[in-house]
């Protein structure tokens, strides 16, 4: 397994950008890829520093791409850079040009924690033709609630007025209603610890998906918003992914 720290220029962001990549060492093969997204206070190094993701990916034969997006909420920010366009449009093409990664939908997945859980769900439900499965770990799945209760300046920079979120492309509840009638629908996975401050938001999103008939694998158990929980649950996500053996 190779661990690659990759720095490059982003045409979208117009700055130097970074991603960490875990890559199997296997010749003559294009690898399935998990885009693994970080949380609000983290960066592209967090998953490697705080979990054993490299060891977990090794046994599954999957590449893992971990980009840096600052405090952007994986959004083309109201006052800031176009991180949504960067992650969903520019990044996959660049990663595939640098590394032997499969471009097939059935080989591409996204997952993330907290802010990254929101980003993964948003990616999968906005572009269901590009990703076969997405997973949210303790995700900030109700961004209006986050913006109203604790978003502060971050929320203003990302979304502008919180009142603009409902019904917009940033609203996972609206995206869920739109994707439920589309084909193909990516597999969706959601988990949250029952002691997490985002637990009620996650229950609300789970119930919404069930109400509209959107298939969703949901799991909860005792746990807080911390790395011990995410280190355990990312192993569950890797087992859940529909990897072609």
TrEMBL record:
Pfam families in alphabetical order: Esterase
InterPro entries: AB_hydrolase_fold, Esterase-like, Mycobacterial_A85_antigen
Protein name (Swiss-Prot/TrEMBL): Esterase
Organism: Cohnella kolymensis
